[in-house]
Specification:
39% of the residues lie in helices and 22% in strands. By secondary structure, it is an alpha+beta fold. The protein has a domain of 205 residues: FAD/NAD(P)-binding domain, CATH 3.50.50. The strands form four sheets. Strands 5-4-10-11-12-9-13 form a seven-stranded mixed beta sheet, sandwiched between helices. Strands 2-6-3 form a three-stranded antiparallel beta sheet. The chain has a three-stranded mixed beta sheet with strand order 8-15-14. Helix 2 packs parallel to helix 11 and helix 11 runs antiparallel to helix 12. The longest helix is centred in the C-terminal third of the chain and has 30 residues. It is globular and about 60 Å long. It starts with a helix and ends in a 5-residue tail after the last helix. InterPro entries: FAD-bd (IPR002938), FAD-dep_Monooxygenase_BioMet (IPR050493), FAD/NAD-bd_sf (IPR036188). Keywords: Monooxygenase, Oxidoreductase. This is FAD-dependent oxidoreductase.
Length: 346
């Protein structure tokens, strides 16, 4: 398993269930930088199950109410975190990726997590271990080895910039334009996460440099978007195309191998559920294997997790398509209001 969010959550859960565990991470260290993640109540309950929920809450802050707006600042719909709190007992918590990984890794004893240890061929691992957990991310080599290129990554039609700016923002949310979207999420005092999404051909490279391209598209949008872009030079920005796995996998297990997180169901980030579902996958897998019956436990894991995560992935892709709309924007806004009135996937 990899040393990302899903792999570490699985390792914690399996150790608590009495398993001997090794985590093989291809990177040389945990990341020191990264944007914020929204950890929803269902994922927080899963973290409670493996004993780290309180530490994750302490590492972040509750998400405030926000809104989805148009470029002129007019409101399309309110993002009501009070509704989440009332329904589930607590709100979404915003936690930076490095902070979350730090909490998870610190819950494991020394020697469990091995850095600089990529896994290219799982044949030996499958032979020498009772269970192999494939948590090797969106470009999973293990998924390809087991299922081939048919169940591979598909371009979602957009490219994204993500960064963290030194700026205080009272509330977050998204702004939807025509084939373009901008999101802002407060991370803490003086720090704000942001992302910019453009509908574009795969591998798109603008004629302008990235900062000027973003100012060209978003510079005239409502405050505080221009202020965020003014800090581009000091932001820690990453950029990548958006992909998802399609068609959906027929199973999350093959023999003694279990796939989880992005390796199993990489989805577009439009519901903010990628990290949450990886956590729930890992904790569920550990619970299913707690009885020691590997075959039965893997079947139970696949039965419990495959359909819910694939429904979320399909819904996320639908929202992605809506956000890229260039026509019928009034209809788009109405559908969005209806969808959010039914409640978020907490």
């Amino acid at each position: 398993m990899g040393g990302g969010i899903g792999g570490l959550a699985t390792a914690i859960g399996l150790r608590a269930a009495g398993w001997q565990v090794g985590v093989y991470e291809r990177s040389d260290t945990l990341p020191a930088t990264g944007t914020g993640l929204g950890i929803w109540p269902s994922a927080l309950r899963a973290l409670d199950e493996i004993g780290v929920g309180a530490a994750v809450r302490a590492a972040g802050l509750p998400q405030r109410n926000g809104a989805i707006r148009r470029p002129d600042g007019s409101r399309i719909v309110t993002l009501d975190m009070d509704q989440v709190r009332e329904k589930h007992g607590e709100p979404v918590h915003l936690v930076s990726r490095p902070a979350l990984l730090g909490v998870l890794s610190s819950a494991l004893p020394g020697g469990v997590l091995s850095f600089g240890s990529p896994v290219g061929d799982i044949t030996a691992l499958r032979r020498d271990h009772d269970v192999v957990v494939a948590a090797d991310g969106i470009g999973s080599r293990i998924r390809t080895a087991l299922f081939g290129d048919r169940h591979g990554l598909r371009y979602a039609g957009a490219t994204v910039w993500r960064g963290t700016a030194d700026l205080d923002v009272a509330t977050g949310g998204e702004t939807w334009g025509v084939g373009a979207r901008f999101g802002i999420t407060p991370q803490g005092p003086g720090r704000t996460n942001w992302y910019a999404v453009l509908t574009a051909p795969e591998g798109y490279r603008p004629a302008l440099d990235d900062a000027d391209e973003l100012r060209r598209v978003f510079g005239g949008w409502h405050d505080p978007i221009p202020a965020v872009l003014d800090r581009y030079a000091t932001s820690q920005v990453i950029r990548h195309d958006l992909h998802h796995v399609a068609p959906a996998l027929p199973s999350y297990t093959v023999g003694n191998v279990a796939l989880l997180g992005d390796a199993a169901h990489a989805m577009t980030p439009d519901l903010g559920q990628g990290a949450c579902q990886a956590i729930i996958d890992g904790v569920t897998l550990a619970r299913c294997l707690s009885g020691g019956e590997v075959a039965a436990g893997l079947r139970a894991y696949d039965r419990e997790r495959r359909r819910p995560t694939q429904r979320l992935a399909a819904t996320s892709l639908l929202v992605n398509r809506m956000s890229q709309a260039r026509r019928f924007l009034a209809l788009r806004d109405g559908v969005l209001r209806l969808a959010l009135s039914l409640g978020p996937p907490a």
